[in-house]
């Protein structure tokens, strides 16, 4: 499962170099680092925080505004009963095993993966095959764990078995993982022992609400439940009309067993979730599907994975739905919209695929599910889930609380219904059966149309009927015609009631953010020949800061120009930062390329004479020079993507004066 | 402490009517309501969510962008050790008492307040004084609790005592509250018994992090700690220059003892906090203080409150600082900026005051603190705190972790320092004292300049010195001249090191949001004479939705005009909603006034002929009519507050055609 990661320009990507740059520039930093840190918890510094805000802002425009979704902001603290009903208390868990000697806690699927990958690497080595750079680096890191694992050649069949297991690693439950560990005698390298059989570990953080500690609660594992519980109110807010979607952006929590993989597996994370409520009748059509049907997606379906492969098919979403690869139009519509969103924020188009969940892997509520996965140095990473949760959540909450979570739809043509109906004579029925009254009544009301027809005949013929009621008397109960009536009647229904199904696109903002940083990262060698310089080529709309203002020196005459320029940029809604430090202009631009700022403005002595400034573009390092207002207008059109840098170069004079210094 | 609340137009405010409207329109709703709800937890529906987003957006522009603050996003989950060091584990608590019979848990200060207010009301009644409407309503609600409390006349002295206690209710600790309960024989109305003496209840939600349950953690009670822990990195990000501020917007948690008061006392809430780091030398001057010094604030200082009064002084902030009412310029600067922010989002200027904390009331870390309080139907509500936390937090975290959280400032002129210095002969010292080595060394290094001078003489005279070291030998330790040297030396310092002080403006977004809804609420009587209609007169920049598009009917010919208009509005960044329901135009506008939407556009048959539409202003219900583009431009200028409605009326033709129907 290892891959050779590359930068935006196809260079080999050295994750350690990138990571140390990201931390140095405070895109992120381990939380509580001066206290030694807590694994799986990270803080975003100013550029990371701005990047996150921009991604969320574009997400809101792309989804909520574009489709008039109803945004809500619900509580993170959630009482036990809600998550018991939703199934999370019982089923939201990972498989965990323990080393019997040193007590180390291992996530079972990760452990199996590690062991098999190590063996496959050893096999390659023994066969004298070239091990790719990345694999080698990984192997080095794992040396401590895999010491004593020599380069052992495996049988060809065994290699195939291992590869097949790895291709469907997400498909195994705890017992199956335990069986694999035994069958292939997998041992924890630290102790040389097989870990204990996997047990389930619930991933929710628990707490208690209120002073008397009697109300158990959890931190929500997803934002979805709050949206479901508000369904009836949201439907009313939407003046009763269907379909509609709610949406929510907020933090969720998962108590990961042993988080590694940096920003990709964290215990606290920002989610953006949409719950699109749709009528289950009519094949879940979507009225805007025609707008997206030609968009081609890279699909990895369930069958391909089960056959042990990871080959992607490039298919227009229209075709994928009509051929049944993707279940329905609404699901397909959102897959395409997710694709467009990822493209818009600057995800590398060659590093996206949509992978269908396998049966065992799906969340307990899902009817079908596709993940948008992004390729990073950690391999393919699930960044967006798009699940068809069917009517599961609304049904269970409604059953538990007795509150109807349904849509009542006025029928265009009333529906004529003919059927056998039962009328209980309440006044006599209850007193007659006494304590068994409710049980017998329930049994009568649960009868099928066929049974009712037969009972009606019995009543007419004998004045009584005999019904099976387990647990009452000898299980047979006689009911006389004075206690109930059964009649065949015709009635007209003007309203149809149904529980909507839910299509749920669910975005892990932190994972998208990290992948985006990898996808936009590359290095360029400087003219001077010293070490390669890092660049983060974010699209202007996503970049944390849009413009860096760089005065040539700390000369006081530049101050009014700096102030005026940053004021003008602020007025057109563009964020800028000033770097008037004493570093050379080249160094300052270089620092800024690392921060991903797309544009730089230099203020020099010519500015004082004629008000002109130079504008530098990050990726090409080319420059134009013009008056302040022209430059501000140029930046505005670049940031809202209405013009490209080539357009600007054709409109404004190229500036080459200081190129060497500024590159 | 009760007050007669009024609407924006000075009408008496009926909170029950407002509340039911806010819930009906889904500004907010109790979380998990279909499960019976959990007190102190609320969800925001679409308009509440949009209102919150707009307040936060303006906050970011007003503070973060305007002053180049460094925004960070830190973990909510916080390990025990961090909050132990910050003092929250020991001191972040309220006083709680218990009814000995029914086990009811009471917050001690609220209990004392309730009992005294009830008695004062009884006294007024006995004296035949008029009880204000609001008080009466409150009394009715509390009837169950206060049953058996007759209208008893109190001595004039007792009335004064009670009023004085209420004026400084926040100033008492648990023991003092317990004394008051005994002294005035306060009893829980439900049982007729005195509650138990107050005990401290920590307000943090606890959880454990990781699978082995061994890392205790809490949900953060404030965003501040994450900012402090990142101080060194933030300073470096700011290229070492001071002063600077960090900022953070995020949820915090407090496990309130028995939350009432709706959105004002909740267990999960959005905070926006600024930590402004400033050099403690030089009186905490602020370089932009001159921009705000003439702004007049309503101040209620500590002395006034201690004398049992609540009289506000209207003072320009410049004068307040120069007279020492407010401690320093930086604190004063932020009080003025907070005032401007509250004004900008539409808080009623007559319902703001800044109240200084009393000594006992201040958080454990604060050196001085002022709250911006807003007047609501619940009385004065603390919405923004502005504390001088001194160097407290940075110092304790630095001490605990050994990581320096300081500023190193290059001195313009090197500083010449002459002093006695101690050099320990490490190689001999340790072996000589063995296990006591570190203790003796610490004692030697802790000596004062005077002591060192004396020891230096002893060493010279006798070749040894005798120093007090409690716990080692008999408490007197002899140190020979081979083990250390003490010399008077001159050295030059080029760098000054100091721990910055922190000024912290801390905003409770939810409380501001609720107060804003009360402040902008009023009712107008309709022409038809039926019941009063609610209006929420939010400023356009804050309003959840800016424009309602209302087609005259569901006629299909209107559809392309609706689509084009909403597209044009979206292009200029203005959110709109369409109401094409079958309700009358009047009803639709009325619904919309309740949602606080400032502008409405009607599309009618004239639109199909000439493309013109009418624009309605919410507060005046007056209308103008013009072409689509002119109307869109007008709305844009109204939303960014560059034009007033009066400007628009003078530029575009007034429309009076359908006024009756539309009012």
UniProtKB/TrEMBL annotation, chains A, B:
Name under which the protein is recorded: glycine--tRNA ligase
Recorded family membership: Belongs to the class-II aminoacyl-tRNA synthetase family.
Function (record text): Catalyzes the ATP-dependent ligation of glycine to the 3'-end of its cognate tRNA, via the formation of an aminoacyl-adenylate intermediate (Gly-AMP). Also produces diadenosine tetraphosphate (Ap4A), a universal pleiotropic signaling molecule needed for cell regulation pathways, by direct condensation of 2 ATPs. Thereby, may play a special role in Ap4A homeostasis.
Comp. bias regions, Basic and acidic residues: 124-139
UniProt catalytic activity: 2 ATP + H(+) = P(1),P(4)-bis(5'-adenosyl) tetraphosphate + diphosphate
Localization: Cytoplasm
PROSITE patterns according to UniProt: AA_TRNA_LIGASE_II
Region entry Disordered, spans: 124-146
Pfam families associated with the record: HGTP_anticodon (PF03129)
GO biological process: mitochondrial glycyl-tRNA aminoacylation
Gene Ontology cellular component list: mitochondrion
A single MF term (Gene Ontology): ATP binding
E.C. code: 6.1.1.14
Gene3D superfamilies per record: 3.30.40.230, 3.30.720.200, Anticodon-binding domain, Bira Bifunctional Protein, Domain 2
Subunit structure of this chain's protein: Homodimer.
InterPro entries given in the database record: aa-tRNA-synth_II, aa-tRNA-synth_II/BPL/LPL, Anticodon-bd, Anticodon-bd_dom_sf, Gly-tRNA_synthase/POLG2, GlyRS-like_core, tRNA-synt_gly
Location of the Aminoacyl-transfer RNA synthetases class-II family profile domain: 204-551
Alphabetical UniProt keywords: Aminoacyl-tRNA synthetase, ATP-binding, Cytoplasm, Ligase, Nucleotide-binding, Protein biosynthesis, Transferase
């Amino acid at each position: 499962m290892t891959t050779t990661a590359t930068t935006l320009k196809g260079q080999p990507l050295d994750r350690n170099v990138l990571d140390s740059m990201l931390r140095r520039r405070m895109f992120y930093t381990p939380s509580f680092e001066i206290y030694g840190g807590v694994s799986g918890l990270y803080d975003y510094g100013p550029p990371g925080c701005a990047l996150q805000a921009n991604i969320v802002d574009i997400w809101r425009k792309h989804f909520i505004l574009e489709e008039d979704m109803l945004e809500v902001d619900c509580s993170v603290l959630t009482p036990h009963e809600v998550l018991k009903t939703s199934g999370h208390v019982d089923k939201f868990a990972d498989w965990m095993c323990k080393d019997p000697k040193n007590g180390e806690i291992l996530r079972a699927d990760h452990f199996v993966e590690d062991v098999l990958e190590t063996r496959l690497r050893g096999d390659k080595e023994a066969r004298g095959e070239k091990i790719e750079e990345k694999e080698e680096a990984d192997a080095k890191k794992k040396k401590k764990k895999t010491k004593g694992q020599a380069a052992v050649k495996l049988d060809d069949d065994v290699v195939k078995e291992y590869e097949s297991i790895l291709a469907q690693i997400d498909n195994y439950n705890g017992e199956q993982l335990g069986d694999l560990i035994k069958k292939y005698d997998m041992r924890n390298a630290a102790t040389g022992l097989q870990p204990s059989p996997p047990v389930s570990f619930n991933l929710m953080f628990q707490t208690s609400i209120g002073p008397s500690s009697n109300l158990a609660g959890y931190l929500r594992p997803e934002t979805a439940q709050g949206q479901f519980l508000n369904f009836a109110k949201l439907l009313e807010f939407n003046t009763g009309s269907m379909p509609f979607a709610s949406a929510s952006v907020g933090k969720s929590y998962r108590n990961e067993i042993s988080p590694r993989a940096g920003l990709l597996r964290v215990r606290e994370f920002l989610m953006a979730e949409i719950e699109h409520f749709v009528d289950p009748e009519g094949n879940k059509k979507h009225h805007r599907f025609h707008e997206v049907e030609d968009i081609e997606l890279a699909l990895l379906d369930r069958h391909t994975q089960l056959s042990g492969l990871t080959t992607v098919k490039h298919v227009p979403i229209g075709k994928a739905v009509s051929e049944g690869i993707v279940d329905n139009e609404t699901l397909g519509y959102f897959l395409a919209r997710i694709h467009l969103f990822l493209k818009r924020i600057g995800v590398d188009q060659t590093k996206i695929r949509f992978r269908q969940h396998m049966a065992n892997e799906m969340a307990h509520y899902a009817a079908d599910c596709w993940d948008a996965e992004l390729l990073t140095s950690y391999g393919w990473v699930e960044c967006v889930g798009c699940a068809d949760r069917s009517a599961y959540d609304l049904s269970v909450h409604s059953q538990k609380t007795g509150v109807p979570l349904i849509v009542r739809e006025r029928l265009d043509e009333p529906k004529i219904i003919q059927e056998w109906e039962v009328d209980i004579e309440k006044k006599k029925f209850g007193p007659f059966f006494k304590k068994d009254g409710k049980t017998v009544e329930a049994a009568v009301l649960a009868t099928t149309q066929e049974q009712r027809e037969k009972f009606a005949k019995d009543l007419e013929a004998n004045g009584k009927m005999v019904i099976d009621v387990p647990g009452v008397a000898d299980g047979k109960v006689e009911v006389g015609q004075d206690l109930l009536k059964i009649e065949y009647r015709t009635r007209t229904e003007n309203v149809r009631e149904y529980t909507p199904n839910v299509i749920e696109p669910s975005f892990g903002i932190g994972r998208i953010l990290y992948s985006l940083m990898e996808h936009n990262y590359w290095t360029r060698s400087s003219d001077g020949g010293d070490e390669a310089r890092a660049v983060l080529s974010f699209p202007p709309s996503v970049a944390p800061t849009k413009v860096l203002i760089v005065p040539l020196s700390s000369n006081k005459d530049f101050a009014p120009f700096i102030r005026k320029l940053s004021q003008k940029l602020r007025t057109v809604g563009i964020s800028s930062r000033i770097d008037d430090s004493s570093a050379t202009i080249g160094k300052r631009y270089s620092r800024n390329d690392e921060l991903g700022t797309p544009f730089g403005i230099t203020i020099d002595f010519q500015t004082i004479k004629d008000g002109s400034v130079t504008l530098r573009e990050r990726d090409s390092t080319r420059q134009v020079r013009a008056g302040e207002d022209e430059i501000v207008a140029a930046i505005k059109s670049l940031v809202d993507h209405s013009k490209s840098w080539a357009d600007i170069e054709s409109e404004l004079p190229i500036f080459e004066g200081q190129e060497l210094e500024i590159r």
